[in-house]
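Operator note (shift B, R.M.): manual run for Extracellular solute-binding protein requested after the automated queue skipped it. Running by hand, logging everything below so the morning shift can see what happened. Input copied straight from the record, untouched. If output looks odd, do not overwrite the archive copy; leave it for review.
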Amino acid sequence: MGSEPIARRRFLGGAATLGTAMLAAPFVRGAHASGPLTVAFWEHRVPGADEALRGVVEEWADENRIALRIDFITSVGAKHLLTARAEARARVGHDVMVHPGWQVAVHHRQLEPLDDIVAEVEATHGPYDEAASFLARVDGRWRGLPAPSGSHAFPMVSRLDLLKQHAGVDLQEVFPPAGVSRQADRVATWSWEAFLVHAGRLRQAGRPFAAAIGPGGDAQNWLAPLFLSFGAVLVNARGEIGVDSDQMRNALEYLIRLAEQMPREVEGWDDRGNNDWLAEDRAAVIVNRPSPWAMARQGKASLAQQLWHHDMPGGPSGRFRAVMPHFLGIWDFARNKPAARALLRHLADRDVVRRMVAASQGYDLPLLRPLLDGPTWAEAGPPKGTVFNYPVRGDEAMITAGYPAPPAIAATIYNQGMIGRLASRVTREGWAVEKAVAWAREELETYRPG
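Run finished. Output pasted below as returned.
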C-alpha cells in the first residue's frame, strides 16, 4: 500500500454552514483566499480508518467552504518521514503534515507554534498526557497537536489459551476487562523475572515469545520499556551519557537470558516479523498495537478469539509501555495557515476523537485521559474486552523510545535505532556486556550537540 497520488484533489463548494467550533470561525473566514488546504495524514494499518478520517475532514471542509486535498502517506520504508524531510528542505508541500514520535523535535524550527489551540483544547478536556507534551512542546512552545488518527501504544499481545496451558497464567484474571477491578498483588506477579520463566515454557511448547531485536521501530518499542524497568538509560534528562551503569549491565544480562528463549529469527526482523509469526500460529506472545488482532478478525476468527492485550512486565524500577504519538504540525511556509489552524482545532473535538477510535477498532489512542472513557475498548471483541487494557489502565508509565534524553538527542537515538543496535551486540553478535557498553558510550558521544 502507498500514499494516495499527489494529484488527487477534491475541491469543495456550495452553500456554507457555520462551523461548529467557535475558535475555528475567525480562522476559516480568512482561509478562502489562500488556496486549497493540503493535508498529509499517516496511512492507517486498520482497514476503514482512513476512509473514516477522510469523511471527518471532508464534512468539515464542506461546512466551511474550504477547498481541500488529502494525502495518506505510508510508513512502509519510512516514506512519511522522508516526505516530511523533503518538504522541510524544499520549503514547499502540504500545509498540515503528520509527525510521529520525535519528529516534531526534528522539525520544530519550521513548525508554527500551536499554544493557543492547545490551551483551548485543554480548557475543554483537561491536560494532554505527559508523553504528548514531552514530545511536542519544544523550547517551551507546542509545535504539534496530537492527531486523531495514528497514535498508538505497544502492549503485549498474548494467546489466552497458550499462556494458560503452558505457563499457568490466566491473563483475564491478571488484566481483567471493563467492570472488573484489578488486583495489585496479581499485577505484581507479571514481572520480567517471572516472564523469563514463562518464555522458557512457551519455547519448549513450540510457541515462543517473538519480538524483533534490531534497529527497527518495533524492536525499540519493547526494548526501551525493558531497559527503563531496570533503571537503564542511554542518555539522561540532562543530556549526560548514562549507558555505562550497573542498571544497563543488569538489563543487558537479562536480555541475553531472555533472547535464549526466543526464536533466532527475531534478530534483524523488520516490523512485520512478529505479526507474521502470530498470524501463522508460531508465537504465543508479541509486543504490538491492536492491528494484528484487527487483521485476525477479518480472516482468522479463531485466532482473534484467543488474543488479549495487556501490560508489559515490571522490573526493579517500574513498569513502562512505549507509545508512539502522532502529531499534526503546520509548516511555517504553509500557504493556508488559517484553515490549517481551524482544522487542527476541529480534529481535537471529542466527537471526532471517538469516531476515529471506533473506526480504528480501538487502535487510535487519545492522549487526553478524559477521552479514554469511550465504549469501544470495553466492547470490542472477540473476545469482548480484548483491547480494554490497550489504553494504560494500571501503573505503567508511557514513554517513547529515547526517553528521558532531551528531544534533540532522543530523536537521534530513536532514528538511528540505537537501543536495538545495542541489544543486538549482546544477543546476535555475542559481544560481552562490557564491550557493548563501551561501544555504545563512544557512539552516543557523536549524538550530543557541539
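Quick read of the result: The mean pLDDT is 91. The domain at 152-323+382-445 is CATH 3.40.190.10 (D-Maltodextrin-Binding Protein; domain 2).
Leaving this for review. - R.M.
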